[in-house]
Design goal:
CATH topology of the largest domain: Annexin V, domain 1
Distance between the termini: 44 Å
Number of helices: 18
CATH superfamily of the largest domain: Flagellar motor switch protein FliG, alpha-alpha superhelical domain
Largest sheet: 2 strands, antiparallel
Shape: globular
CATH class of the largest domain: Mainly Alpha
Order of helices and strands: HHHHEEHHHHHHHHHHHHHH
Helix content: 55-70%
Strand order of the largest sheet: 1-2
CATH architecture of the largest domain: Orthogonal Bundle
Radius of gyration: 25 Å
C-alpha cells in the first residue's frame, strides 16, 4: 500500500513538471518501474489531482530535497540561480528587494514594493527582467509564465529567447497549460527573485519583431484562445491587432488545411490566381492543391502554369497574399479546419 501511494505521489510530481521532464526521468528507470509510473500518469489524465494533493506532493518533495541537500553538501546552499528547481518554490517575502529599471538610456535603481502576489509582481516588470527571470528553464516552465502575461508583453519577453526555445515554448501552447495556482505562484516567486536583479545589459534581444512574435504565439493556440487574445489586442491596440492579423495567416497554411475545408477555399479562388501562386511553391503545397480540385481545374492550372514561364516574384507574392486573405476570412468565420 505504501509503495502504491509513493508511486502516486511521484506520478503527480512528474505530471506537474511536464512531459519533457517526465520522459527524462522515466528513461532512467527499469522497464517495470517505467511501466508502473506510465500507468499512474495515464490515470491522472482521467482523474487529475486536486490542488491540495499537488501542494502536498510539492511540499513533501521540497522538504525531502532540502534535507538531502543539507546532508550531502553545504555547497548546494549557494547553488546557481540559472536552474529552477522545485526546492526553490518557496513563498518567502519579496519586500525590500530592488529592481533595476531603465528609462531611455538612463538606468536607475527603484524601490520595488510587492503586492503579495508573485505573478502580478512579475507581470509588472519590464520584459527583459521577466526574460532574465525565466531564462534557462524548461519550455513548459517558460510557457506557464508567458501565457499568463498580457499578449504584447509575452511577445516582448520572448524576444530575448533564441528561435529554437521559442518554438519549443509555442509547442506547449498546443497542449494544456493548466497548472495548480499554488504551483504557478511558486514558479513566479522564484522567477521574480531573479528578475529583480536582472539588468538590461544582462540579456540580449534576439528578434525585435513584436507583431511577428505575437502572431507566432497565436498560431500555436487553439482557435478559441486565439480569438480571445486577438479581441484583447484589438481593444487596447487596434494598429497592432491589424499588423498581427496580417502575419497570422500564411500561404503555407494551405498544406495544413483539411481537404474538405481546402476544397471550399479553393472554390473561391480563380484559376489564374492559383496558378500564379503555385509557381515556385513547395511541392507539398502544390500536390495538396492539385489533389483537391477537379480534374478539369487541375488540367487547366497545369496548362496555364506551363505557359507562364518565369513569373515575377511580385506577381507570385500578390497572388499568395490574395489567397491568404481568403484563408483569414474563412478561418475567422469558422469554415476552416486545420490538421
Amino acid at each position: 500500500m505504501e509503495t502504491a501511494e509513493s508511486e502516486e505521489r511521484v506520478a503527480i510530481l512528474l505530471n506537474i513538471l511536464g512531459s519533457e521532464v517526465a520522459e527524462a526521468v522515466l528513461g532512467r528507470l527499469s522497464q517495470e518501474k517505467e511501466a508502473q509510473l506510465r500507468g499512474k500518469l495515464d490515470g491522472l489524465t482521467q482523474h487529475p489531482p486536486s490542488d491540495d494533493e499537488v501542494d502536498k506532493v510539492v511540499d513533501e518533495f521540497e522538504r525531502f530535497f532540502r534535507s538531502a541537500s543539507e546532508q550531502t553538501s553545504s555547497k548546494l546552499e549557494s547553488k546557481s540561480t540559472n536552474t529552477l528547481s522545485i526546492a526553490d518554490y518557496s513563498n518567502e517575502p519579496i519586500e525590500g528587494m530592488h529592481a533595476n529599471q531603465q528609462q531611455g538610456t538612463e538606468e536607475k535603481q527603484a524601490q520595488f514594493v510587492s503586492t503579495g502576489d508573485a505573478l502580478t509582481d512579475l507581470s509588472s516588470l519590464e520584459p527583459f527582467q521577466i526574460a532574465g527571470g525565466i531564462q534557462g528553464e524548461s519550455p513548459r516552465t517558460i510557457a506557464l509564465i508567458v501565457s499568463r502575461l498580457e499578449p504584447t508583453k509575452s511577445a516582448c519577453t520572448l524576444q530575448y529567447f533564441p528561435a529554437d526555445t521559442r518554438s519549443s515554448v509555442f509547442l506547449q501552447f498546443n497542449g494544456s497549460l493548466d497548472a495548480p495556482t499554488g504551483l504557478v505562484q511558486r514558479i513566479a516567486t522564484v522567477a521574480l527573485k531573479r528578475a529583480l536583479h536582472v539588468k538590461k545589459e544582462d540579456v540580449e534581444v534576439v528578434e525585435n519583431e513584436v507583431e511577428k512574435l505575437v502572431a507566432d504565439m497565436l498560431r500555436a493556440m487553439s482557435k478559441n484562445d486565439r480569438n480571445e487574445v486577438l479581441e484583447s489586442i484589438e481593444e487596447h491596440n487596434p494598429d497592432m491587432a491589424t499588423g498581427v492579423r496580417g502575419l497570422l495567416y500564411l500561404f503555407d497554411d494551405l498544406a495544413s488545411i483539411k481537404d474538405r475545408s481546402l476544397q471550399k477555399l479553393l472554390g473561391e479562388i480563380d484559376t489564374t490566381t492559383l496558378a500564379t501562386a503555385l509557381c515556385g511553391a513547395d511541392e507539398a503545397i502544390t500536390s495538396k492543391v492539385m489533389n483537391n480540385v477537379s480534374k478539369r481545374a487541375r488540367d487547366s492550372m497545369s496548362e496555364e502554369m506551363s505557359l507562364m514561364g518565369d513569373v515575377p516574384e511580385a506577381d507570385r507574392e500578390k497572388a499568395r497574399d490574395d489567397i491568404v486573405v481568403v484563408i483569414q476570412r474563412l478561418d475567422q468565420e469558422g469554415e476552416l479546419v486545420m490538421e
